[in-house]
Design a protein that fits this description.
The structure holds two protein chains of two kinds. Chain A folds into three domains: 239 residues, P-loop containing nucleotide triphosphate hydrolases (Rossmann fold, 3-Layer(aba) Sandwich), CATH 3.40.50; 113 residues, OB fold (Dihydrolipoamide Acetyltransferase, E2P) (Beta Barrel); 137 residues, Nucleic acid-binding proteins (OB fold (Dihydrolipoamide Acetyltransferase, E2P), Beta Barrel). Chain A contains eight helices and 36 strands. Chain B has a single domain, classed as MetI-like (MetI-like fold, Orthogonal Bundle), CATH 1.10.3720.10. In chain B, helix 4 packs across helix 7. Classes of the chains: A alpha+beta, B mainly alpha.
Chain lengths: 505, 267
């Protein structure tokens, strides 16, 4: 991108979309420069397609503004927006042939006619002439490499050809922004790779701003000038492909883009971080003793003969992947995935080393689970939609429970904690996951699993949209229905108000 | 030994259907043609043809039949299309119960249903004796509406919502999208709906007899009348005329469908 080309073409300000009270896109803020190739990347259900549909005008934002060249278009219907879309399943018109599909938009278009003026002296609007339409359609066909296909029936075309017609139909209108909703999803791998290159070339040739939606991280890395990584309707990271790959903001981005080893570590001092039972030199600066997540890319780990690197471990598996071998090494209880071109023997010790700038350190997203809750009449605590047994005596120091369920301190003061608001904190390792939905206190669905070397970090989402983040050694499956149990002594609580508010006279 | 020689082939599966069509489709058709072009004594003759075209009364019956058939088809489509559209939209139609509501009249015997319609119309002042054509058309539309709604509804259910969005996206407003995208895309449904209404309307006579209180003669009446009086030859010739008309309308409708497909067909 050269510096003069910094004009912002579209800006999304605080755009939020809700369906029946469920937030699909959450306060989305983004500016896109003219002529860029921007990709919305994320797993299914992350809100990327909904965001695209709001830009196209098929969905109206619940709140927020969409500014196109500085003007708010968020309430304008799609047919009045200078934006065109390439749909996932092409959405070509089966009753029209290739030519008429492409000419569809042109035939509807009206342009100012300079030769005829109305009373105010403004030029009248006229349709495009047949020659003009013909010229544009032929040009579009040339761009997508489908010359001489104009009179073919849509149904006689292959998937790749239909895709090209869909692209031609959109670009022939010379939109300011071209939206592409997973356009290559239905094509086979080889075709997809070819189209990736072609799309990129088309983008360069046409100079139109492209907004591309995909769940394929490789596609995003290959084609984009800028990637917007999304999860749960929120932007996780915005940046150039290389920046996203090299410096992921959090474990989600690291896990989603490329392969990665993720470990829990502790900062020792300005230049050292402890993980895999070793002090590694690093370049990121974090406060001393902070618990952090450390990401190592498999290709950044140097494999060596035993004793020659920083940490020794046992190679337990080897898979040939064409250009390199993928090894799995066990260092203590931790698994390390390594990509290396050299052939090492497995079931033998080897050694790894990592360069300081290849160690990516991130703030831990979840240190513990925190909830707002309250105490009920029977001295249970209610939070996250479940009723948990707890030890209320921990709320006020030096108290015991009397027969009637009141707290009594050494001075004989009685406290009634019914309906008292509390802050609840539960450690990540203190939550038990139970297979049977009925047996736990509250049930939910596993929405995310991230492997962190020697354990999995699992997020369980309840029906009421509360999350439980759990560290466990056991593997579970995404979308599993499970329930959670929390032992009484692992629930840490703090009163929101002063204890004296609850004194009973 | 004989059994081992017999090898089952796939084409043998067609035998039952073949027998059925020979006995119940082809043979009756040939019989109609035979009767149409013979006289009472079984001799080949054109007397039936001459009789039909020499009587202006017969010809006007044919014209009335076609006109009523067309009017019924057009009115049914005009009413049925928006209903089918609403039914196919999940937003307005959350269950199949509403679809059933439009189909349920078919569960009642149609003679009874038509007689009830006549009484109802008389009650609100549209007397079949005074307004035979209005009453007949209303009776026909009521009877044939489900046959329009069903094929349209099922085509609309299969319609890709993305294509309608694509139309908006390419600059078409709601009216343009309706005429340039939705109508052409539902053309197969429109054609089959029209065929299912137009042809039976022409040859039916029970509805017009009941609703129009025997003031209207359709070609179906003529056929019935002749057959009842044992005039098989002239009756068969009328049946042949209807057959020809049906064949013609099939060809015509096919052309309409093709016109929708072809470039510039609709604009």
């Amino acid at each position: 991108m050269n510096q003069t080309n910094k004009e912002i073409i579209i800006e999304l300000k605080d755009v939020t979309k809700e369906y029946d009270g469920i937030t699909v896109v959450d306060h989305f803020n983004l500016s896109i420069e003219k002529g860029q190739f921007v990709t919305f990347l994320g797993p299914s259900g992350c809100g990327k397609t909904t965001t695209l549909r709001m830009i196209a005008g098929f969905e109206l934002a619940t709140s927020g503004e969409i500014l196109l060249g500085g003007k708010d278009i968020s309430q304008i219907p799609p047919h009045k927006r200078p934006i065109n879309t390439v749909f996932q399943r092409y959405a070509l018109f089966p009753h029209l042939d290739v030519y008429d599909n492409i000419a569809f938009g042109l035939k509807l278009k009206k342009i100012p006619d300079e030769t005829k003026k109305n009373k105010k002296g403004e030029p009248k609007l006229r349709h495009l002439t047949k020659q003009e339409i013909n010229e544009k359609v032929m040009n579009a066909l040339k761009v997508v490499d489908l010359e001489e296909f104009e009179s073919r029936d849509i149904t006689t075309l292959s998937g790749g050809q239909q895709q090209r017609v869909a692209i031609a139909r959109a670009i022939v209108n010379e939109p300011e922004i071209l939206l592409l909703d997973e356009p290559l999803g239905a094509l086979d791998l080889k075709m997809r790779k070819e189209m990736q290159v072609e799309l990129k070339e088309m983008h360069k040739k046409l100079g139109i701003t492209f907004i591309y939606v995909t769940h394929d991280q490789e596609e995003a890395l290959t084609m984009s000038d800028m990637i917007v990584v999304m999860k749960d309707g929120m932007i996780q990271q915005v940046g150039e492909p290389k920046a996203i790959y090299d410096e992921p903001n959090n474990t989600f981005v690291a896990d989603f883009i490329g392969e990665s080893n993720i470990y829990s570590g502790t900062i020792i001092d300005d230049n050292h971080v402890l993980f895999l039972n070793h002090r590694f030199e690093c370049v990121d600066h974090f406060p001393k003793n902070e618990k952090v997540d450390v990401v190592l890319r498999p290709e950044d780990i140097v494999l060596n003969d035993v004793g020659k690197g920083m940490v020794d471990g046992t190679l337990v598996s080897k898979v040939f992947k064409g250009i390199y071998y993928e090894y799995t090494m066990m260092i203590g209880k931790n698994e390390v995935i390594i990509q290396n071109t050299q052939n090492f023997e497995i079931n033998k010790m080897a050694s790894i080393s990592v360069k300081p700038f290849d160690i990516h350190i991130m703030h831990k997203e979840f240190v513990s689970n925190t909830y707002d809750g309250y105490i009920d009449k029977k001295n249970n605590v209610i939070f996250a939609g479940g009723k948990f047994e707890c030890d209320v005596t921990t709320l006020i120091e030096g108290t015991t429970l009397d027969d009637e369920g009141f707290l009594v301190d050494q001075n004989g003061l009685k406290y009634d904690l019914t309906d008292a608001d509390v802050k609840v904190e539960v450690g990540l390792k203190d939550i038990e996951i139970i297979d049977n939905e009925e047996d736990g206190i509250i049930s939910g669905e596993i929405v995310s699993i991230i492997y962190k070397g020697d354990h999995y970090q699992i997020i369980i989402r309840t029906e009421e949209d509360e999350d439980f983040v759990v560290d466990t050694e056991w593997t579970w499956n995404e979308n599993d229905k499970v329930s959670v149990l929390i032992p009484k002594d692992k629930i840490q609580m703090k009163l929101v108000k002063e204890a004296k508010e609850y004194v009973v006279d | 030994m004989l059994l081992t020689k017999f090898r089952f082939k796939r084409k043998y599966l067609s035998i039952p259907y073949l027998l059925f069509s020979i006995f119940f489709v082809i043979a009756p058709l040939l019989l109609i043609v035979y009767y149409a072009f013979t006289d009472k004594n079984g001799h080949f003759s054109f007397t039936n043809l001459q009789e039909f075209f020499s009587s202006s009364g017969n010809f006007s019956v044919l014209v009335v039949s076609i006109l009523i058939g067309e009017a019924n088809t057009i009115i049914c489509l005009l009413i049925g299309y928006p209903i089918a559209m609403l039914l196919a939209k999940k937003k307005y139609n959350k269950s199949y119960v509403t679809v059933l509501l439009f189909i349920m009249p078919m569960w009642i015997n149609f003679v009874l249903r038509t007689a009830a319609t006549r009484e109802l119309l008389r009650w609100i002042g549209i007397d079949g004796g005074k307004y035979p054509y209005v009453a007949t058309i209303i009776g026909m539309v009521y009877n044939y509406l489900p046959f329009v709604i069903l094929p349209l509804y099922s085509t609309m259910l299969k319609m890709d919502k993305n294509q309608i969005e694509a139309s908006y996206d390419l600059g078409a407003n709601k009216v343009q999208t309706f005429f340039k995208t939705i109508i052409p895309m539902t053309m197969p449904g429109i054609v089959s709906a029209a065929t299912m209404v137009f042809m039976p309307t022409m040859s039916s006579y029970v509805i017009s007899d009941i609703m129009g209180e025997r003031n209207i003669t359709l070609i179906g009446n003529l056929i019935n009348l002749n057959f009842e009086q044992g005039l098989w030859n002239i009756g068969s010739f009328y049946a042949l005329i209807i057959l020809a008309l049906i064949g013609l309308s099939v060809v015509l409708f096919k052309d309409v469908e093709k016109a929708g497909d072809a470039r510039g067909g609709l604009w």
